[in-house]
Amino acid sequence: MARTPSPKKRIEELRAQIRHHNEQYYGSDQPEISDAEFDILLRDLRDLEATHPELADSSSPTEAVGAAAVTTFDPVQHRVPMTSLDNAMDESELRAWGDRVSKGLGDQPVQYVCELKIDGLAISIRYENGVLVQAATRGDGKVGEDVTANVATISSLPKKISNAPEVVEVRGEIFMSIAAFQKLKAEREAENLVRIENGRAPLAVPVNPRNAGAGSLRQKDPSITAQRDMSLWSYQLGEVVGGPEFTSHHDTLEFLRTLGFPVNPEITIVDSIEAVMQFCHSWQERRHELPYEIDGAVVKVDSLAQREQLGFTSRAPRWAIAFKFPPEEKHTLLRDIQISVGRTGRVTPFAVLEPVFVGGSNVGMATLHNRDQVAAKDVRPGDTVVVRKAGDVIPEVVGPVLAKRPKNSTPWVFPTQCPCEVKSTLVKLDDVADTRCVEPMCPFQRDQRIIYFASRGGMDIEGLGERTVFALSDAGLVVDVGDLFSLTVEQLLTLEGFAELSAQNLVASIQASRSKPLPKLLTALGIKHLGPAASDSLSSHFGTLDAIASASAEELAAVDGVGGVIAASINAWFAVPANALIVSKLRDAGVEFGRVVVSTLPQTLVGKAVVVTGTLANFSREGAEEAIKARGGKSPGSVSAKTFAVVLGESPGASKVTKAEQLQIPVLNESQFEVLLETGELPN
Ligand code: IVH
């Protein structure tokens, strides 16, 4: 018989899982599960904590959910709190809510207002004597941020209203239409081509309309928001002084409409949960017909007297519920399972799918992670499979549709040989999930190593991307990174896609990279386990590549942030004859082996971690990070409780902003960042 864990154990498990997924989502921007699955974990934990108050813990993730306002915009105290809504994840939860409403109202008849749940940002816009005076985000529901100047740029929003009450707060959702998002994305991509051509860092490209909308609303310069074509649906009133008396929600919507505010036309009033269900299911099917994104439906009791009777829980009103659409799933043909080989030889299986439109985009490929995952799912080429995508989460193959499995189908067998021409044996050790190609001369690994060498974190060679590396490798012009430096314009001209100017530019940027500082060169070599932070420490300690190559494992391991695993890996790398050959080719080409930039700047940031997100006007991303390091600080890629400050540029990563808000980490704009660099202090 299966044993169920004790509540204490289960609570601990859930807390650990939620912390892990929070870190994946906010910290590394690599969510492993959908928002819907996350919500389920969080709710299970909340339910268990409610039934076991003796197991309460103030550090539980349930206590931390809900973003507090950040300090970049002035705080605004909401006079009427902006509460959130409880969620119904499926039909039975929606019915259960309907039952609670009926019970709470002693079985009176109920009218429900069904609305679309707009996937945007909640806003409260205050008018005094008909004039827009303030717009604030929801924040933690009590205190939001003042984004008046940005909201005032929304063209469909009246700036002045006639016949208005003395005070009226209009609440609703600000969003970016799909068309506006696509326009912004296309403009960004075009602008990036020019920036790259001019040697400037590309700007972040927004991933979906909600993130683009959030980024636009957070602009310090409202003229940028004005170019973004944001929209609003209003759906609620906040504080009202001197206004008419209302008896129903639909009256308030009508009032908003007559004042000139946009009210969504798809709102429907029904008198049974059955009809509510129909509304929800119908929009679940038709959501992509809308020119903006929705992630569910919101159902509200219409009568204001009944709302009063039902009241609020500590979190949300009892008279409304958000029905969240489940992650979208589609069936498609699994054409094949193939494997890709990474720079360190790690082999990743992936699904080649008959392209299918799911979750707002076309999906033709999806990772299957590793051998165990394929075995656990037992998906086979020729199967019809379920593909899922929720929000901006990467597409996932959920599993096979067994009823449609072709007869005589057999389980997929993980290849025993690398698909490259060397056909080396693939190895899986018992205690690790990964399978590896252990042949260092495997051309697939080789190409990935060259791509890594040229990438931003390494030698940052402009114009040497994946496609060019494959072309160079196919033409036999490069075998390892040492060969890059002897490439000529004439050789490049033999490749498709190269003209005189682009060939000259690439040769010039390869040659220019020879004077990159030692930590960049060391990182670029792609030594297993050796990342930029340890490369920095090793470079400062040893000063030259030759000194690192000849150091013993003990000497290497003694350096701050290095340790035994990295030290052994470095020793092993330099001991491989093919790598020694690379080092000698680099030396012959005149690559600098000892360019350690010693900072003469005041060490204002020693021991402080400052995270940079978004595009800054006066610094490239690398420039900002180097400015931090040159003052003794660290610039990690993710926000954690140890982060001293987060610097926000244009189009910041939404997850980093949210995490900073959650952890209440100071958020700085560019000029405040400059003060921080100079003084090491947080500006007032
Ligand atoms: S009513 C007390 N109506 O969903 C009622 N919210 O999950 C407050 N949302 O914070 C909200 N569309 O940002 C309401 N038609 C709609 C909505 C809507 C989107 C958002 C809103 C809210 C969140 C709750």
TrEMBL record:
<keyword id="KW-0520">NAD</keyword>
<comment type="function">
    <text>DNA ligase that catalyzes the formation of phosphodiester linkages between 5'-phosphoryl and 3'-hydroxyl groups in double-stranded DNA using NAD as a coenzyme and as the energy source for the reaction. It is essential for DNA replication and repair of damaged DNA.</text>
</comment>
<dbReference type="GO" id="GO:0006260">
    <property type="term" value="P:DNA replication"/>
</dbReference>
<dbReference type="InterPro" id="IPR018239">
    <property type="entry name" value="DNA_ligase_AS"/>
</dbReference>
<dbReference type="GO" id="GO:0046872">
    <property type="term" value="F:metal ion binding"/>
</dbReference>
<keyword id="KW-0436">Ligase</keyword>
<dbReference type="GO" id="GO:0006281">
    <property type="term" value="P:DNA repair"/>
</dbReference>
<dbReference type="Pfam" id="PF12826">
    <property type="entry name" value="HHH_2"/>
</dbReference>
<dbReference type="Pfam" id="PF01653">
    <property type="entry name" value="DNA_ligase_aden"/>
</dbReference>
<keyword id="KW-0460">Magnesium</keyword>
<keyword id="KW-0235">DNA replication</keyword>
<dbReference type="InterPro" id="IPR001357">
    <property type="entry name" value="BRCT_dom"/>
</dbReference>
<keyword id="KW-0227">DNA damage</keyword>
<dbReference type="InterPro" id="IPR010994">
    <property type="entry name" value="RuvA_2-like"/>
</dbReference>
<dbReference type="Pfam" id="PF03120">
    <property type="entry name" value="OB_DNA_ligase"/>
</dbReference>
<feature type="domain" description="BRCT">
    <location>
        <begin position="600"/>
        <end position="684"/>
    </location>
</feature>
<dbReference type="GO" id="GO:0003911">
    <property type="term" value="F:DNA ligase (NAD+) activity"/>
</dbReference>
<dbReference type="GO" id="GO:0005829">
    <property type="term" value="C:cytosol"/>
</dbReference>
<keyword id="KW-0479">Metal-binding</keyword>
<dbReference type="InterPro" id="IPR013840">
    <property type="entry name" value="DNAligase_N"/>
</dbReference>
<dbReference type="InterPro" id="IPR012340">
    <property type="entry name" value="NA-bd_OB-fold"/>
</dbReference>
<dbReference type="InterPro" id="IPR001679">
    <property type="entry name" value="DNA_ligase"/>
</dbReference>
<dbReference type="InterPro" id="IPR033136">
    <property type="entry name" value="DNA_ligase_CS"/>
</dbReference>
<dbReference type="InterPro" id="IPR004150">
    <property type="entry name" value="NAD_DNA_ligase_OB"/>
</dbReference>
<dbReference type="InterPro" id="IPR036420">
    <property type="entry name" value="BRCT_dom_sf"/>
</dbReference>
<dbReference type="InterPro" id="IPR013839">
    <property type="entry name" value="DNAligase_adenylation"/>
</dbReference>
<keyword id="KW-0234">DNA repair</keyword>
<dbReference type="Pfam" id="PF00533">
    <property type="entry name" value="BRCT"/>
</dbReference>
<protein>
    <recommendedName>
        <fullName>DNA ligase (NAD(+))</fullName>
        <ecNumber>6.5.1.2</ecNumber>
    </recommendedName>
</protein>
<dbReference type="Pfam" id="PF14520">
    <property type="entry name" value="HHH_5"/>
</dbReference>
<keyword id="KW-0862">Zinc</keyword>
<dbReference type="InterPro" id="IPR041663">
    <property type="entry name" value="DisA/LigA_HHH"/>
</dbReference>
